[in-house]
Each structure stands twice: as C-alpha cells, then as structure tokens.
Amino acid sequence: MGYRSFLHSFFSALVLTVVTLSLIGISDAQVRSSSNYQIQSDSVNVGGGLSTSTSYTQESTVGEIATGPADSTTYSLRAGYQQMQEVYLSLLVSNDVTMSPNLPGITGGTANGSTTFTVLTDSPSGYQLTIQAENNPAMQSGANSLTDYNAGLEPDFSFIVGSSDALFGYTPEGVDVVPEFLDDGATCGTDTQNAALACWDGLTTTARTIAEGTSANHPSGATTTVHFRVGIGGSAGVMPGVYTATTTVTALPL
C-alpha cells in the first residue's frame, strides 16, 4: 500500500512527498516468559516439531483438534497454535501535507506542515513506525538543497535557525512516540512529556524509529502526527525553485 502527499510552499513551491507502506507480518507474542526464556505458543498434541534442511524449514503438529482457518462475513478464526501467528497491520495517512506560508528567498522565515499516521494492529507485541529520506539532503531542487536539521545526540527542544542557515527538520507527536522525542519541558530525551512542536531533528537516508507500541491496539489504533518545518535565516541566500523531499514511513509488527 502506498501513499503520496504533496507539500507546497517555499519560493514558488516546496514539495514534500510522503510514501507510506503497510505491511502484514508475523508477531512475536508469547504465552509464557521470564528473564531467561519465552515460549511463543504452546500446544497439547501427540507429535510434530521443527524440521530443517539447507533448503527448507518446517514446523508441524499432529493431534490438535479442529485446527485451521474459518471465515464468515463478520469474523475470521485461526484455530490452533500454528494458525495463530499471523497478525493484522494497517497504516493510514490523514491527508496531503501543505507547507505554509510561502517563503521569500531574500528575507527568509519559517514554513510548517504536518500529516498523521495511524497504525492499527492486533499483534500482541505491538508495532514499530520508522521514517527515512530518499535523498541526502532530503529537500532538494536540482543542484540546490536545504540542510537537514542536525540536533546532535538528542533532538533540539526548539527549532534553532541561524542567520545564514536554511534548514529542514521534523518532529513526531503521539501516544507511542519513542523516548528520544519526549521531554521534560526544556530538554529532549529526558522525561515522558510530549510538548507540542518540540524536539526537532533532521531526516536521514537511514530508517529511524519515531513511534513504538508495545501491545495490540485494534480496533482504535494509535496515531502519530509528524510535523515538518523549513527555517531560513535572513542571510542564507537560498536559490528560488521547487524543493522536494521524498520520505518513506514504514510500519512493522513486533
């Protein structure tokens, strides 16, 4: 499943293309665990087990009663521990992103835009949401580009722009945002608060986790809002044009 969202602003235009992927995967839920082990599923049967070779892997059971899939218009049943490992996962995007306002290249300024990603899963172990840029730097216009915001070890609580800077950054907000984007009201990665429009960093071509749920959230789901910002200093001297960033947001079951 793919989604493209366009974000307009900056000189004649500034475009952010967001590509989102929705994946079906295998959950790692467990029925028994301790600090030393976990049993993912158990079964009372008369035979079976794990068999492997250089070309295949087979997991089988013998003797379970009434196993297999059963479906109707209102339910889906997967009976038996071999059937139960499949999980449902979906990723929904709210809308296209439009940056505002348009920015003049001479005096600079700040443009903002955002979109939301809702992950819905019945995986008992939850999900992980990652974001990455297609290009380095992320925001480009031909041979010209904006610098990816670089906060260092932890995101910056405030979006800091110097007079000669032209920066593109993002921050996630939501119930499952990972600890490095949480704050104590002044510093990021230090507490459990999730202040609005705080804890900024830049996109990279390496996938970075921005949200992580630890349990099933079906049917309500969990929403993460990603805010994007362009900041241009008064003496940055950025060339006018259509600047584009392509970003991939991926949801995976845990």
Number of strands: 17
> Could you tell me the mean pLDDT?
80
* Main sheet attributes: strand count, strand direction, barrel closure: 5 strands, mixed
Which class of secondary structure composition applies to the elements? mainly beta
**SSE topology string:** EEEEEEEEEEEEEEEEE
Number of domains: 1
* Helix fraction by DSSP (H/I, runs of at least 4): under 10%
Identify the overall geometry.
elongated
Pick out its properties:
four-stranded mixed sheet, disordered N terminus, mainly beta, five-stranded mixed sheet
Model description:
With 254 residues, this protein is mostly beta strands. It has one domain. The chain contains no helices and 17 strands. The protein has strands spanning 13-21, 32-33, 38-39, 47-52, 57-62, 68-71, 76-79, 89-93, 109-121, 127-133, 140-141, 144-145, 147-148, 166-174, 208-213, 222-232, 242-253. The strands form 6 sheets. Strands 8-9-16-14-13 form a 5-stranded mixed β-sheet, with no helix packed on it. Strand 4 (47-52) and strand 5 form a beta hairpin. It is elongated, with a radius of gyration of 23 Å.
